[in-house]
Each structure stands twice: as structure tokens, then as C-alpha cells.
């Protein structure tokens, strides 16, 4: 809906726009563009020459020819956790094996132990610097998963901490319950009993408290099987929550098709995705979220089948997967560079992957992800001469100004 454009609060002019809106122009490019906002929403985004008359903005900002993109969206993170795994990383460099590291208290369960021992305040305090790093790069929406609690009290605390971050910074946070991430030690190897707990107690409680916007799982030989994940998805469906899945990261288990069967918002990682999986995702509109930080950090050698995704027109998003074990990455710009260098995504695919397609992966495309009337006025204003600079630089941040809900 275009809304009424007779007045506006703020007007950005003399800008080049990458609207990412559908159409023939690459990036939805508009060279001499303007954006008007009222009550935090975009009321106009287009050529300056076509600005509706009589807008009478309270404030006009001359962008000096800078580029404006939609605010960036990191659609897959595990940003809230305690401790870190730097010592484990060092041990791996010194030649330690996975088993030795696990024996020395490392691995995912060491993060579970640290997170269980942390208060909600501790979790908020340790997550804030990571969140601020994303914000400094123009991120205006972030998804945050639980999954380092693996019991009701800690999963609840992780999600509550994630919700609190949204009160402390100008950013939208969507939360995802990831109880089916790993088997907690007290389950003593009984996966079926733990999945029972997740389905019968955790998902209903988390959903009733409004703590999660979606449910995720880790489908992998070292985590949970497709049958176990199907039970989790049934429980999510019963609780009225959409699903997404860590799928085909280390091996192919056919779980991208499972995700598609449950109309998953996204299937993530996908290094080992096969053709039937890509076809199923295309049919269900499930977004492929590529996570080059994890691919890089664990020194994976099989890249996700990008050509297959293109052939089947599966939407492609890019995210950091910010987590202490396999992707200690809190730069979405670097994730874009890695998606290009390691996976050969085009610049436009990278930029769409952290805006429009990331919004789609969160089920938020009607609210954010492109510069179009009716959406939240979330902008990233960049000191660049060409969109390719957003992907090309390594360890350099060309952000000039970030706007969240019109300010
Ligand atoms: N996939 C991963 O690579 C991480 N979780 C997941 O589902 C690993 C998380 C960790 O090691 O802490
Ligand atoms: Fe992940």
C-alpha cells in the first residue's frame, strides 16, 4: 500500500538507490533518487523527479550522491551464548582431534555448560558487543536462535535475552527456538526421550510464552535424524510456529526435502544439497540460506550447489551463522565477501541475500528487505561509488549512516 504521501517526517535526497524491488533494473537501481518516511515507514522511494508535490518534510537530508540500500538483515545467528571456544580453536591448530577436544570439555556441550551457568543479564552483556558489530555495518534486523540451553529454563533465558536486546538497541530481533540442536548430557544418549521433551514440553511452553517466532533443528548424523526432526516440526505446527532447518551441512540426509514438506521458511547451510532437495525447496518457496563463515571456519571443501539453486530458482540468502563453534563471525559484510569468493555468488545475489531474500527467509518480506512504500524505513547509507564495493572490501566498513524505522 502506497499510503498517503501528502506529508512526511524526513526526506533523503541526492542519493543513488538500490531498492532491491522486483523489476528489470539490476539492484532496482535508481540514480537520482529520493526516499520519504512518515511514522517510521517509507511513503516514497523512487526518482527524485517524481517526488509527490507538497511533502513538506520536517527534515531533508542531502546524501551527497551516496548509495542507499535497505538496512541489512542477518537471518541466521546464534548470537546469544556464554563463553567462547577460542582455546578449542587453538587446540585444533595444535593438532588435537575432535574426540580429544570433547574429552577436554570442548565442543558444543562446553557452550551449553557455560550458557546454563549464565544469568539473563550475563547473556545480554556478552551478546551486546556482537550485536553492536552487526549494527555498525548497517544491520537493522537480526534473527537469534536458542539451542545452547537444551533445557526449558536455559532455552527460555536465551530467548528472553534475545528479546531484551531489541529493547536496548534500535534493531528488530526475531527469535528462533533451536531445542533440537544437540543432545544434552543428562539425556544419556537417549535421543527419542529428548525429542519427546522438546515436543511435549519445550515447544508448547516457549510458544505459549511468545518467546519464539519460529522453530529450527539440526538435521545431521552428529545431531538429529530426519524422523526426529519431523516430530519437532509436527510440534511446531501444532503450536502455530513456522519452521526452518540446518540441513545438508556435513552430509546429505534428504532433510531439505523434509523442510520443504513442512513449508519451511528456509533450509540453511546446504553444502550437500542434491537435485531432488533443490526441486522440493523451489516448490515450497523455501529460501536457501548460505553460511560461508561456517564453511570457511571448519575448512569444508564442498561448496553449496549454487548453480542448482539458480537453475531451480530457489531464493538465496546469506547470513553470518554467528556462533562460537563453527562460525565466530559477526560481520555480515565479510559474509557477503565470502559468499562471492568461496561460493561465486554475484554481487547482486550477495546484496539481495542480505536484504530481500533474508527478509523472505524470516517471513518478513512485507515489512522489510526492499525500499518500497509501506515497509519500515530501514536504510543503510554507504560511502561507495558502486554496489560492488559492499562485497569487494575485506575488513573495511563503508557505512555512513544507518536508519531504523525512519531515524
Ligand atoms: N551447525 C553448526 O555448524 C553449529 N550448529 C549447527 O547447528 C555448531 C554450533 C557449535 O559448535 O557451537
Ligand atoms: Fe547455525
Describe the structure.
It is a single chain. With 407 residues, this protein is of the alpha/beta class. The protein is 36% helix and 20% strand. It is built from 15 helices and 15 strands. It has helices at 86-93, 98-103, 108-116, 120-135, 152-168, 191-208, 226-239, 255-261, 275-284, 292-297, 306-311, 332-343, 347-353, 356-361, 389-392; strands at 10-18, 29-38, 41-47, 59-62, 67-70, 72-74, 139-145, 172-180, 214-217, 244-247, 266-269, 287-290, 316-318, 379-382, 399-403. The strands form 3 sheets. Strands 1, 2, 3, 4, 5, 14 and 15 form a 7-stranded mixed beta sheet that branches. A 4-stranded parallel beta sheet has the order 6-7-8-9. Helix 8 links the parallel strand 10 (244-247) and strand 11 (266-269). Helix 8 (255-261) runs parallel beside helix 9. The mean pLDDT is 96. Bound molecules: 3-[(4S)-2,5-dioxoimidazolidin-4-yl]propanoic acid and fe (iii) ion.
Summed up, the helix count is 15
Strand content: 15-25%
| Class per helix and strand makeup | alpha/beta
Give the total of beta strands.
15
Q: How would the global form be characterised? A: globular
Average pLDDT reading: 96
Radius of gyration, CA atoms, in whole angstroms: 21 Å
CA-CA gap between termini: 21 Å
Classify the helix fraction into a percent range.
Answer: 25-40%
